[in-house]
Write a structure and sequence with these properties.
By secondary structure, this protein is α+β, with helices and mostly antiparallel strands. The chain has 9 helices and 18 strands. Helix 7 runs antiparallel to helix 8. Bound molecules: adenosine-5'-triphosphate (ATP).
Length: 327
């Protein structure tokens, strides 16, 4: 269903139309509710808008590419959904003939790690839309890019292999997610599935190339290439990462069990001192390569990637956003 409004008496100011990409399923209804508030505001102010609902998984890419290719002046494209929908929209823009097209974003997911990562202060969707409309210049924010055989994707948060990716897999396939989301406990949903993953996730071999150096791990367990600190709905896997420093961070945690794991995890939850632990290795670079030697689950911005022997080259890129940032 496409909603289209052109209200009589619309002030033909600089903004002629707002194109909204909506994932009405995101955040178990949070995105839909945010969209309703936003469109009510737009109507009250006689602004022209159109809502483009995603009709199936992955649809955000197609919609964003199409809207960017229309290249209309005076139009602002705004995504309302979670990190997965934002990821798709960024990839759609990058695949279009106008990859410099800016995107507005109103978070409505369950995790919303991107907004946490860029320290977005405005929480109210209507105030955020007002801010987006008032902005004259878009802001450039880092996004990661991963290239591999048959793989070319941009990501706004992170790409993970192993532990966190298995957690995404189990979370997406659990009935508890929906239930906990209803209670607005998306992070808890992720957390409870960690226990399942601790039981099932094996250690795996991993090679990392950075600069002229190579590092080998016999027993990698958590592997995250990240644009900012957060994954899994607010866990700061690398508190030193920043989406404004034109670098990507890579964190590798070796397989540990029992109390060693509990201690490390509590450091991660409390003060970020896990990065100094002897079982954790991390780098901050403009590019690096990863190769895991057995099939493992992967995740990109919370979206499942099929199980793979990943061979990925990471670089840093950027995307223009209609978002109020004070970094
Ligand atoms: N109409 C649809 N039917 C089925 N799946 C959809 C539909 N529209 C979008 N999706 C899928 O929903 C998934 C989740 O989207 P999204 O990440 O935006 O929300 P979320 O998981 O609630 O948020 P977050 O990632 O911030 O926790 C994405 O994989 C997207 O492709």
């Amino acid at each position: 269903m496409i909603y289209f409004f052109y209200l009589k008496g619309t002030k033909m100011s600089e903004i002629k139309k707002i194109e909204i990409i909506l994932n009405h399923l995101a955040g178990n209804g949070r995105a839909k509710s945010a969209c309703n508030k936003v469109t009510e505001f737009l109507e009250k102010n006689s602004l022209v808008y159109e809502v483009h609902p995603t009709k199936k998984a992955g649809d955000g890419v197609r919609i964003a590419r199409k809207l960017a290719d229309e290249n209309q002046t005076g139009v602002k494209i705004v995504v309302i959904g979670g990190d997965g929908t934002l990821n798709q929209a960024v990839n759609g823009i990058k695949q279009s003939n106008y990859p410099q097209t800016p995107l507005g974003y109103i978070p409505g997911g369950s995790g919303n790690d991107f907004c946490r990562g860029i320290k977005l202060k405005v929480k109210d969707p209507v105030i955020l839309m007002q801010t987006i409309l008032a902005m004259k210049e878009p802001q450039r924010i880092d996004v990661g890019k991963a290239l591999g055989p048959k793989f070319e994707h941009y990501f706004v948060n992170n790409i993970g292999i192993g532990f966190d990716a298995s957690t995404v897999y189990f979370t997406n396939h659990s009935e508890r997610k929906e239930f906990l989301n209803k209670l607005h406990l998306g992070t808890l949903s992720y957390f409870t599935n960690l226990l399942k993953v601790i039981k099932h996730q094996p250690a795996f071999g991993l090679g990392v190339d950075f600069g002229y150096r190579h590092k080998h791990f016999d027993s990698a367990y958590i592997v995250v290439a990240t644009n900012h600190p957060y994954f899994g709905g607010g866990f700061a896997i690398d508190p030193t990462a920043s989406p404004f420093n034109h670098h990507l961070n890579l964190v590798v945690v070796k397989k540990i069990t029992g109390m060693t794991f509990v201690k490390l995890f509590s450091k991660l939850l409390t003060n970020g001192s896990h990065l100094q632990d002897k079982n954790v290795w991390h780098i901050e670079k403009t590019n690096f390569k990863l190769h895991n030697y057995t099939n493992q689950h992967g995740q990109m911005d919370g979206e499942e990637l099929a199980q793979h022997e990943f061979q990925l080259s990471f670089t840093i890129d950027s995307q223009l956003f209609w978002l109020p940032i004070t970094n």
